[in-house]
Amino acid sequence: MSSTSFTDLLASPGVDCYEEDEDFGVSGSVSLFQGGGFYPERTGSGLPKFKTAQPPPLPISHYALSDFIDSPLLLSSSHTLISPTTGAFPFQGFNGTSNNHSSDFPWQPSSALIETYGVQDHQKKPYGVQDHQKKQDLIPHENNQSFGSDRQLKVPSYMVSRNSNDGYGWRKYGQKQVKKSENPRSYFKCTYPNCVSKKIVESASDGQITEIIYKGGHNHPKPEFTKRPSSSSLANARRVFNPSFVVTEPHDQSENSSISFDYSDLEQKSFKSEYGEVDEEEDQPEMKRLKREGE
DNA sequence: AAGCTTTGACCTATA
DNA sequence: TTATAGGTCAAAGCT
């Protein structure tokens, strides 16, 4: 197991390229656990402090993905692996047989900075500088070829611009063309009252999500949705986003020294909502829209 | 009518 | 100190 390579994981039948969305990154976020828990980082004023959260000493993303995967830190602390193709956790031994009470936990611990990368993007453009350098380090180029013709990764624009179906409600509050990427970034805030969680979605012109960055954490449980999508197309559309892997970075220096991967906790907390209901839970506004259109 | 996206302007951090 | 880039605001329009 310790020799599991990125390629192996890619080839693994257990890796479902159509697994769920980036929220696994959220669920798999790590840095918040060792510090005593949830940390929507806040300044003294109560505002989230994102900029100061650059943790140079030991960001995971400085390591090769294979190292990350092989890390006993990761393996020993959970039953899970991050799928390099999906960014999802296979959750071995957690196929719904475990505690499924996702609603039992008061909040979704998604406060770590999470970056998920769409695979296609890496073959068409190299990342440039700084963080992107790190990203490249995490991407075994040999494996990029595996995604060569994977056109099913195309993501409808509504997915990109809305919420990428992680179960939370997101409202777009800005878009910007940034220099270090050829793709525009869309800025989203969680629509839940008083929730400071944000995410930045970088998407290519053709609608492919190339990167998602989560900032801040949700201070509320994931909304429960009861709607069941009848549209297979919508379901399919939702599935096409295929983050190649998840990188987490603690963005609080206080957490640099020890990065904990307590996924077991996360499993219990979020798995149901991810695997059990996530197919049913839709982008809430999107569903409203579709519903309206159907009427 | 509410909630969303769009988009230009503005603010702030960084080199 | 200044220029630049990234992030956010907020008005307007749309669904």
Automatic annotation (TrEMBL):
Specify the superkingdom: Eukaryota
Where does the record place it? Answer: Nucleus
One of the record's GO cellular component terms: nucleus
- Residues of the region (Disordered) are 127-149
Q: Which GO terms describe its biological process?
A: cellular heat acclimation; response to cold; response to salt stress
Q: Where do the WRKY domain residues begin and end?
A: 165-223
Regions of biased composition (Basic and acidic residues) lie at: 131-140
Q: Which UniProt keyword terms apply here?
A: DNA-binding, Metal-binding, Nucleus, Repeat, Transcription, Transcription regulation, Zinc
Q: Which GO terms describe its molecular function?
A: DNA-binding transcription factor activity; metal ion binding; sequence-specific DNA binding
Q: Which family, according to UniProt?
A: Belongs to the WRKY group I family.
Which protein are we looking at? WRKY domain-containing protein
Q: Which residues of the full protein are shown?
A: 1 to 295 of 389
